[in-house]
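BUG: 3D viewer hangs when loading the predicted structure for this chain

Environment: internal workstation, default settings.
Expected: structure renders.
Actual: progress bar stalls at 90%.

Input used:
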Amino acid sequence: MADYAAQTDYDPATAASMFDAAGWQKSFASEPNGGNCVEVNLGADRVGVRDTKLRDSPVFVFGRQEWQAFLVAVKAGQFDLPG
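Structure tokens produced before the viewer hung:
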């Protein structure tokens, strides 16, 4: 696994300010009342993820390449629970 330099300016509690407020999107499969979902914000050079249920949810920030690697792994079933 690669080591990454620490981002001293990153704070999950205030990271939402790094993204356009109108850019947050929930899955189309989300329940009408919000359900147990996350929201994703596809910024220009980073991706933000937060919990839809928590009004002041911390935002986790990923680089575009990290996000793409995550999506590939999800589609390949690497995070599926055992049947």
